[in-house]
Design brief:
Layout (H helix, E strand, L loop, with lengths): L1 H11 L4 H19 E2 L24 E2 L2 H6 L1 H10 L6 H15 L7 H19 L10 H10 L6 H15 L3 H9 L2 H10 L5 H14 L25 H6 L21 H9 L5 H11 L8
Antiparallel strand pairs: 1-2
Helix pairs in contact: 1-2, 2-6, 5-6, 6-8, 7-8, 8-11, 10-11
Keywords: Cell cycle, Cell division
Protein name: Cell division control protein 14
C-alpha cells in the first residue's frame, strides 16, 4: 500500500494535469477497493500495481458494512498509515487542491474544474474513512480554501461538491465549526444563498447545509474524538465502537471538559446565523419538526 500511495502522491504533486488526473484516479481506486465488496478478482501482481487504481467496473460491487470494513485488513492498514503525516492522504489531496486553484487562472478548457471535482470527491471519502483527518480543517488556511471554492466564479458542480466536503469536515468536529465561523464562513454561505446568480440546485444544497449547521452540537468523547495533532495515536481496532458512536449523544463524561469549550448551543448558532439571514427561527422550527438528519441504521 505504501508503494501505491507513494506513486499517487508523486503524481498529484506534479504540475502536469495528466499526472494529477492519474494520481487522483489511483487514490480513488484504492479507496474503492477498500470500501467495495468486489467479485472474485485476482490479487494484483507487482507488474500490475502501477495500474491498481482501476477496479473492474464490470463486476457487481456493493459497499461493505462498517462492521466488516473495520475488520478488513486492507482498511486497517490504510487507517494505520493515515495516523502519521508521511502517509496521510487527506493532507496531500488538500495541497493538490491548492495548486489546482492556483492553476485555474491559466486554464479555460474546463479540465482544471474536472480535476478539482475529482480531488473534492476523494477528499470527502477520505474524511469519512479517517475522521481524525478532519482536524486539518481546524486551520484557517485550509478552511479558507473550501470557502474560496464556493466563490461565484466557480461552477455549480464545484460549489455543490465543496458543500459536501464542508459538511464532512465539520461533522462531529466542533473546533472546525468554530474556525468556519471565525473566518466569516456564515457570511460566505448566506451571500451565495441570497445571490440571484446561484443556481437552484446549489441553493438547495446551501439550505441543507444551514439545516446541518443548526443541528445541536454534543461534546465528542475522548474515545472517538479526532486528535488535534497529526501525530495521531488511535488504533484501528477501536473503529467499531467509534463508528457506532458517530450518531449517538454523548452522556457528558468528558473528564477534561476540553471538547465542551468548543460547543455552541443551537440558540447561539441561531443568533450568529441571524446576523446574515432572516427567518432563521423558521429554519430551526422546520429542523425540529422534520428531523431531516435522524440517524439511520447502516
Amino acid at each position: 500500500m505504501e508503494a501505491l500511495l507513494s506513486l499517487g502522491f508523486d503524481n498529484i504533486a506534479s504540475k502536469d494535469t495528466q499526472k494529477i488526473r492519474k494520481g487522483l484516479r489511483q487514490i480513488e481506486g484504492m479507496l474503492a477497493q477498500i470500501c467495495l465488496s468486489g467479485g472474485k478478482s485476482k490479487p494484483s501482481t507487482p507488474s500490475h500495481r502501477r495500474n491498481a487504481s482501476a477496479i473492474n467496473l464490470g463486476e457487481q460491487q456493493s459497499p461493505k458494512k462498517l462492521s466488516a470494513l473495520s475488520e478488513d485488513l486492507a482498511f486497517r492498514e490504510f487507517f494505520r498509515l493515515q495516523e502519521g503525516f508521511e502517509w496521510n492522504v487527506a493532507t496531500r489531496v488538500v495541497d493538490c487542491l491548492e495548486r489546482l486553484l492556483g492553476m485555474a487562472s491559466t486554464r479555460s478548457d474546463g479540465q482544471n474544474d474536472l480535476l478539482i471535482l475529482s480531488a473534492l470527491s476523494n477528499l470527502q471519502g477520505l474524511l469519512l474513512l479517517h475522521p481524525p483527518s478532519r482536524t486539518i480543517f481546524g486551520r484557517e488556511i485550509y478552511m479558507n480554501m473550501l470557502l474560496d471554492l464556493l466563490d461565484p466564479y466557480n461552477c455549480p458542480a464545484i460549489q455543490s461538491s465543496t458543500l459536501l466536503v464542508l459538511v464532512t469536515a465539520l461533522l462531529a468536529t466542533p473546533q472546525n465549526t468554530r474556525t468556519f465561523e471565525s473566518i466569516d464562513g456564515l457570511l460566505t454561505i448566506t451571500s451565495l444563498f441570497k445571490s440571484d446568480e446561484t443556481t437552484q440546485n446549489v441553493k438547495l444544497k446551501l439550505l441543507e447545509f444551514l439545516y446541518f449547521y443548526l443541528m445541536p452540537e454534543v461534546p465528542v468523547s475522548p474515545a472517538s474524538a479526532p486528535n488535534t495533532a497529526m501525530g495521531l495515536h488511535r488504533s484501528p481496532s477501536k473503529l467499531v465502537s467509534a463508528f457506532e458512536k458517530r450518531n449517538s449523544t454523548v452522556s457528558g463524561d468528558d473528564p477534561g471538559g476540553a471538547s465542551r469549550k468548543n460547543i455552541r448551543t443551537q440558540e447561539e448558532k441561531q443568533h450568529l446565523l441571524g446576523r446574515y439571514l432572516n427567518n432563521v427561527e423558521g429554519l430551526v422550527q422546520d429542523l425540529r419538526e422534520t428531523a431531516p438528519f435522524t440517524p439511520m441504521a447502516c
